[in-house]
Design a protein that fits this description.
The protein is about 30% helix and about 35% strand. The protein contains 5 helices and 12 strands. Strand 4 and strand 5 form a beta hairpin. About 20% of the residues are buried.
Length: about 220
Amino acid sequence: MIGEKTVSTILGLLDKSDYKVIHNVVLQRGEVTTQIDHVIISSFGIFVIETKNYKGWIVGYEKSEYWTQVIYKYKSKFYNPIFQNAGHIRALKICLKEYSNLEYISIIVFSTNAKIKIDTSVDVVNMHRLLRTIKKYSTVNLSEEVKKNVFEKINASNLVDSFKKKEHINSIKQRINDREKAIQEKKCPRCGNNLVERKGEFGRFFGCRSYPKCKFTKKY
């Protein structure tokens, strides 16, 4: 919550005529609830921001399922926030399905005390670089009318007032357990196809049989 509030303050510095910001967006897809920290509707695309208020070294790969937080001898794994934010974008695309040509820009934001050791094409930045990262996108691809309509549609779909945090957390835990169970049974947790052993540049791994349609991988 501290991280989200800090980012909210930073985003408040954006020009309100160019950027429309919505904090804490909750969308429902069937029985699945998706909670998004910040969404920005701008002339340059839809920014989807996931906040991680972690310190220490943040280590991992763009396509690895889990990243690691390292503080001296302490290590803790957490789910890859790029994948997490990709799920948020999928939920937004369903919400905004009548706008099929929108550009979605994923940004992962860590505290200023984090040392980010991630090689990635997705923007993974510290808080002090957030505004600079947003403003590097300067190609106009949304009209004022579309911006207004998208802003209103997201607000109308936002269930934050009826959102139950505890139920949401329990739902996430259940999805993680289901995911791990599928992997143990050599099933792809994304599409349900079989996982097959493959060999790549960094050794053996399991990949989805339906590749390249599904690009799920798991370290051996």
